[in-house]
């Protein structure tokens, strides 16, 4: 059968309910104490094939191997012939000699669970080759719903007789591995994941998906559908996770320079503010705490109310283009156009040269939250939250895709390096989307928002923010937050 609901049931793991606005959701609290249950969850699966060695492939293959050590379940990495990643896979312990490294189609043909972690555009181009070699009854695993969107747009479908599941970590691959390793010492450290059971011909797919999530080290697993996952994920990449935050800091750095700040101060008030005190405050105490932490609450309110509607309009436009397939087609076309040359880097503007000096003087003084930067950032984040809620997404998905992934996975990396570095080192799908939508956000901030920030605040919008149900949802999710922050070298 094909699933269109976001149920979470298990005959192996003990789930629990979490109170969210308007009701409850069923979730699974993870932890290494559950590793002993993994053989039961993976009953009938002797070989897991991970196709691809990008950030997610590298992280997930290692986490699965380590969690399943001693169970008799083998994790094998499959790469395309001549892949430049083969040496790195060998360096991380996957080798041809012990049968844990091979050609991608060979691995697909001999695995009971085939996890497709090759790039989105490559998967769109080559999925038929993988489907053609699958063992009867093999489980198809995804960590992104992009392929479903592509199949629907092209009239394709998953092959019958195969379970189709997704486990989607709410963070970049390096976070998935780094927090898993931290979890050796702190049980529960990891990246939250959503799961989706899209097809379940024999009724066991839900436990396989939950076992996969637990084995990745997810401290908190929640249910979604494959369609909702790719909609919220791709929208988030183009909005608050990457596109919008890049457009925001480029706009604000220029604004502060024109107001008389030197380049380092302008960087601190824009980029450093978002990745530092604003992100840390949201992670620790929630969205409303940012407003409370501003010395000039009125300035925050003016910035918030100036930015909310323009940001919401852009998020809604992105959602529509993802939902109708336009955004997915643009990624595939761009991949074809750029097949023989790398994407240009975006970190060439003058603002990024100030980042090294800013990072060098960290710890010498406390950086206060800038109310203008905070108002614009929180308005954009809330606009994404509200748009996903209006489109019917579950609250766990909303807060993970719009808030938790940002402040507990991506922004810490941006803080350690800078936002430009993050944009240039994420997935191709995210990089392409950021280049398309980042300038749209930047232009909206410059042309619509900043000219309005001195106008009186809209008290109705401020009251809607303070009463927003996202605060309740975040408070519930915070109870499941790992006890450690991600360590970024």
TrEMBL record:
Pfam families, sorted: KARI_C (PF01450), KARI_N (PF07991)
Chain residues that bind Mg(2+) 1: 233, 237
- KARI N-terminal Rossmann domain residues are 28-224
Name the coenzymes or cofactors required: Mg(2+)
GO biological processes: isoleucine biosynthetic process; L-valine biosynthetic process
Q: Which UniProt keywords apply?
A: Amino-acid biosynthesis, Branched-chain amino acid biosynthesis, Isomerase, Magnesium, Metal-binding, Oxidoreductase
Taxonomic superkingdom: Bacteria
Pathway assigned to this chain's UniProt record? Amino-acid biosynthesis; L-isoleucine biosynthesis; L-isoleucine from 2-oxobutanoate: step 2/4; Amino-acid biosynthesis; L-valine biosynthesis; L-valine from pyruvate: step 2/4
What's an example of a GO molecular-function annotation for this chain? Answer: isomerase activity
PANTHER family associated with the record: KETOL-ACID REDUCTOISOMERASE, MITOCHONDRIAL
Similarity annotation: Belongs to the ketol-acid reductoisomerase family.
What protein am I looking at? Acetohydroxy-acid isomeroreductase
């Amino acid at each position: 059968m094909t699933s269109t609901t976001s149920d979470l049931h298990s005959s192996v793991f003990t789930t629990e309910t979490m109170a969210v606005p308007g009701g409850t959701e069923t979730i699974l609290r993870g932890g290494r104490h559950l590793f002993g249950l993994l053989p039961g969850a993976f009953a009938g699966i002797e070989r897991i094939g991970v196709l691809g060695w990008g950030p997610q492939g590298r992280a997930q293959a290692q986490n699965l191997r380590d969690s399943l050590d001693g169970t008799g379940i083998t994790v094998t990495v499959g790469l395309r012939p001549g892949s430049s990643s083969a040496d790195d896979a060998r360096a991380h312990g996957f080798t041809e000699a012990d049968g844990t490294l091979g050609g991608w189609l060979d691995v697909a043909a001999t695995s009971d669970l085939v996890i497709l972690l090759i790039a989105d555009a490559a998967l769109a181009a080559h999925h038929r080759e993988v489907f053609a070699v699958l063992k009867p009854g093999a489980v198809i695993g995804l960590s992104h719903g992009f392929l479903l969107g592509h199949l629907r747009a092209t009239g394709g479908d998953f092959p019958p007789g195969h379970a189709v599941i997704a486990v989607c970590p709410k963070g970049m691959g390096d976070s998935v591995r780094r927090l898993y390793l931290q979890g050796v010492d702190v049980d529960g450290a990891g990246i939250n994941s959503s799961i989706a059971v899209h097809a379940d011909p024999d009724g066991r797919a839900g436990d396989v998906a939950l076992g996969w999530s637990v084995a990745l080290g997810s401290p908190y697993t929640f249910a979604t559908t494959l369609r909702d996952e790719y909609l919220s994920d791709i929208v988030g990449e183009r909005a608050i996770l990457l596109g919008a935050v890049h457009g925001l800091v480029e706009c604000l750095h220029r604004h502060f320079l024109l107001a008389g700040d030197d380049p380092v101060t302008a960087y601190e008030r824009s980029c450093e503010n978002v990745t530092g005190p604003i992100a840390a405050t949201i992670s620790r105490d929630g969205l409303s705490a940012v407003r409370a932490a501003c010395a000039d609450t009125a300035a925050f309110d003016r910035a918030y109310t100036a930015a909310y509607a323009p940001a919401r309009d852009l998020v809604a436009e992105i959602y529509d283009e993802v939902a109708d397939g336009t955004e997915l087609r643009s990624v595939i076309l761009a991949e074809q156009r750029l097949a023989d040359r790398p994407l240009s880097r975006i970190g060439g503007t003058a603002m990024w040269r100030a980042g090294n000096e800013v990072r060098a003087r960290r710890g010498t003084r406390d950086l206060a939250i800038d109310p203008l930067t905070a108002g614009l950032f929180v308005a954009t984040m809330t606009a994404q939250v509200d748009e996903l809620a209006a489109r019917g997404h579950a609250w766990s998905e909303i807060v993970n895709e719009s808030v938790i992934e940002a402040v507990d996975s991506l922004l810490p990396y941006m803080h350690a390096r800078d936002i430009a570095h993050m944009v240039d080192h994420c997935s191709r799908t995210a990089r392409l989307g950021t280049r398309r939508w980042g300038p749209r956000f930047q232009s909206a901030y410059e042309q619509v928002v900043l000219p309005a920030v001195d106008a009186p605040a809209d008290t109705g919008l401020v009251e809607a923010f303070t009463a927003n149900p996202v605060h309740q949802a975040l408070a519930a999710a915070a109870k499941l937050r790992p006890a450690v922050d991600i360590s970024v070298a």
